[in-house]
TrEMBL record:
GO molecular function annotation: DNA binding; DNA-binding transcription factor activity
Start and end residues of each HTH lysR-type domain: 1-58
Record has Transcription as a keyword: yes
Entry protein name: Putative LysR family transcriptional regulator
Gene Ontology cellular component annotations, sorted alphabetically: cytosol
PANTHER family tied to this protein: HTH-TYPE TRANSCRIPTIONAL REGULATOR YBHD (PTHR30419)
Lineage: Bacteria, Bacillati, Actinomycetota, Actinomycetes, Mycobacteriales
Keywords, sorted A to Z: DNA-binding, Transcription, Transcription regulation
Keyword Kinase attributed: no
Pfam families, A to Z: HTH_1, LysR_substrate
Similarity section: Belongs to the LysR transcriptional regulatory family.
Amino acid sequence: MELRHIRYLLAVADHGSFTRAAESLHISQPTLSHQVRQLEKALGVVLVDRSGRTVRLTDAGEAYAHHARLAMRDLAAGRRAVDDVVDLSRGHLRVAITPTFTAYLVGPLINRFHAAHPGLTLTIREATQDAIEAALLLDEIDAGIAFGAPHAPGIVASTLYTESLSLVTNADHPLASSSVTLELRTAMRHPLVLLTDDFATRRQLDAHFDAHDAPPRVTVEVSSVSALIEAVRSAPLLTVLPYAITLNHPELVRIPVTPQLPTRDVTLLRRDSDYQSSASRAFDAIVRELVAEHRGA
C-alpha cells in the first residue's frame, strides 16, 4: 500500500465517479481503477460499490476513508512543520477573514507580511465567521480574523481592537450638510443600502435597530462591502460602515446619530492547540503591529 492509493480512493469518494476523479488526478481511468483495486486487495475488503450508475463507497470504504482523511491531514501538518524553520525562509500560512475586514485590512497586512517575510507564502480567503471557525477545526486554515462572539468549542479568540460603526452617505445627500446629531429613528426613515442578513454585521444592526425601536427603511441589499461602498457613493442612500473604512473614502460623509451605532470586538481566531508555527507567530505579531499603529493614528 502506498500513499497514492489513499489519495486515489479519496478522489473517487469526493467525485463519485472514476472518470471525474481520474481527470482531477491527471491519470487515466483504467490506471485509477487498477490502483483502487490494489488497495482493496491489500485490505481484503471491497471499498467501492461499482454496481450503480454512480460510484459510492461501501460501509467499509466510508470507515476507511474517514481515517484516511485524518491521516492525510496529519501528513499535511507534518509537511508544514518541516517547512516551519526558525529563520522563516520558507513556509506557508493560510488565513481567512470576514468580508468587512478585507475592505481595509488585507492590503496593509499583505504588504507588511511580504516585506517582513518574503520567503513565506500567504493564502488569504474571505469567509463568514461560521465558515472560518469550521475551517480552523478542520485544519484547513491556520488563523482567522472575525468578530468577538460565542465561539465553537476548540476555538481560541484573542481581542485585537474594538471596531466602531458609522452611518455614512455621499456629499450630495441632504443629510450630508447637517451639523446636528440625528435621532436614530429619524435617520432610519431615509432609504438605506445594507448588507444581506447572512452577514454578521447586518444581524448585529438589525438587533440594534429593534432594541431602539428604529426600523430601517432598507431599499437596497447587497452581498459585498465593495458593492455597499459603490452604492452609497453613487445613489442618495445611507449605509453603515466600519469607521476604519470611512477613513479610506474621504468622499463619504459620516452622520452622527443618537443613540450611537454599536461597536464590536475584532478577534484573532485559532485552534485550541499547544503548537503554533513560526509563520503563524510572525503573522500574529504583524497583525498586532498594524492594530497598534491604527489605534495610535
